Amino acid sequence: MADVAREAGVSHQTVSRVLNDHPNVRADTRARVEEAITRLGYRRNLVARALVTKRSRTLGVVSFDTTLYGPASTIYGIEQAARTAGYFVSIVSLKSIDSDNVRDALGYLTEQGVDGVVVVAPQRSAWRALENLPSGMPAVAVEGMHNACVPVVCIDQVEGARLATRHLLDQGHETVWHVTGPADWLETEGRITGWRAVLEEAGRPVPEPLAGDWSPRAGYEAGKSLAAMKGVTAIFTANDQMALGVLRALSEKGVRVPDDISVVGFDDIPESEFFSPPLTTVRQDFAAVGRQCIEVLLRQIDTGPATAERLVVPPGFVVRSSTAPAR
């Protein structure tokens, strides 16, 4: 900084004000300092800055199975929002999620000196660990329970399932079959709740749901079972990957989509518009989740840990060629 100040002909304090985007710097002075920074190739020492400010400008993220589209997209949205706010992100990805693993991950991030943590916690088994957060640690969770001990940002899973089910009933289908996600996932519970509620409100039969695990293989096995049943004309799958498996199974059995059976997915993965046929699906706004997580976390960093609140991001709905009026 002393070299930059000497090169620009200003004081050390002026360089500091420019680096920290202080408003009380004249435009020509700011330009001169920025030119000197560029010429000298100056980069701030973030470790030294952290020692002075007592902040690392780093946020921790704990997640599970980042090979899945939902968690991976959520982390991407968080990372982009954090970068925009001038923060780095340190990610701990867990192979399995339980209270011990989450507690160890939080301990690791605390040792790194992160300013706050985001826990992508879509499973009930993760929540016991959140009760043991380090005292005073700013934290926010993604897809948490209603009685959460920290602020939660989530997409309205129930409303997403309602949109999917209502769309199929509006197409004239008598009822809708459902392929679920894994039992321990909160998203699975929300999607089952929304699907069941619409059928019950409409006075329609509620078929026994078929259990899945988010994978195309699970959808494929469920699709084979559904193709062998009589009276199935509409299927709501709990994610797009399982919908892909369902489409494959129905095609192999000679069942036409959407002529014989309509299919709706959930997530709107980038590939879904290129399925055969293109998939009608529920869209999740992961960028909005990331932005709200970072806003809540930075507010806590500035003012102290917040009381538990729940911020809900509405889902969207995308109609493509995999659904049609019942015949």
From TrEMBL:
Q: Which PROSITE patterns match?
A: HTH_LACI_1, HTH_LACI_2
Which positions fall inside the HTH lacI-type domain? 1-53
Q: Which CDD domains match?
A: HTH_LacI, PBP1_LacI
What highest taxon heads this organism's lineage? Bacteria
Membrane-spanning residues where? Answer: none
Cross-referenced SMART domains: HTH_LACI
Recite the UniProt keywords alphabetically: DNA-binding, Transcription, Transcription regulation
What Gene Ontology terms describe what this protein does at the molecular function level?
DNA-binding transcription factor activity; transcription cis-regulatory region binding
The record's listing under PANTHER family reads: HTH-TYPE TRANSCRIPTIONAL REGULATOR GALS, LACI-RELATED TRANSCRIPTIONAL REPRESSOR
This chain belongs to which protein, by name? LacI family transcriptional regulator
Q: What is the lineage of its organism?
A: Bacteria, Bacillati, Actinomycetota, Actinomycetes, Streptosporangiales
